[in-house]
Amino acid sequence: DAGVIQSPRHEVTEMGQEVTLRCKPISGHDYLFWYRQTMMRGLELLIYFNNNVPIDDSGMPEDRFSAKMPNASFSTLKIQPSEPRDSAVYFCASSSLGTGQETQYFGPGTRLLVL
Amino acid sequence: GENVEQHPSTLSVQEGDSAVIKCTYSDSASNYFPWYKQELGKRPQLIIDIRSNVGEKKDQRIAVTLNKTAKHFSLHITETQPEDSAVYFCAASRNNAGNMLTFGGGTRLMVKP
Lengths: 115, 113
Hints:
The structure holds 2 protein chains of 2 kinds. By secondary structure, chain A is mainly beta. Helix content of chain A is 0%, strand content 54%. Chain A has no helices and 11 strands. In chain A, strands 2, 4, 5, 6, 9, 10 and 11 form a 7-stranded mixed β-sheet that branches. The radius of gyration of chain A is 13 Å and the shape is globular. The N and C termini of chain A lie far apart (36 Å). By secondary structure, chain B is an all-beta fold. Helices cover 0% and strands 54% of the residues of chain B. Chain B has strands at 4-7, 10-14, 19-25, 32-38, 45-51, 56-59, 62-67, 72-77, 86-92, 102-103, 107-112. The interface between A and B is medium-sized, with 21 and 20 residues.
């Protein structure tokens, strides 16, 4: 398995532009998580899905952020409009259900810079 | 909800010495405690985990201990090497929380050769 795949790996955009981050979880995993990492705030959970259904989005900063999972192999995190304070590394992670399978595997991350 | 505190935030040791990182959690229902290592510019990767029915687990130079009564768990690295330099994160979760992890703030470990 190729592991969790994220694209793009790097994104530089200007304030006000729309940004779309993409994630392909490990095949067969039931859970998908979106995290944001910054020096100031550490690793924050934004939202997670179970079987393509959003379960907890309480970590989503504000209405400018939205996430979808149209099928088991694809998810997007969208920021519209983007702001400089959104600059961070965004990680996607996936895991399975059940004791012994709950390890979260992280993707390589998308490094976002909003100018 | 769960709250995980991690200490220290930075740790510097001499190569060959041991390093200990400690975490406390608030939710007594938490039963799964993984530790992740994140090298500079890389993704967090699981290095060891422990479940609440076990008090200690060891894998070569790393070990984790869990004290359910006190609600704290620790990562122990023996015979540290320069390649152990990284940020380490502890986390906690409950099975019925849908695999959702709550992470500690991280510890930057520096191993000086």
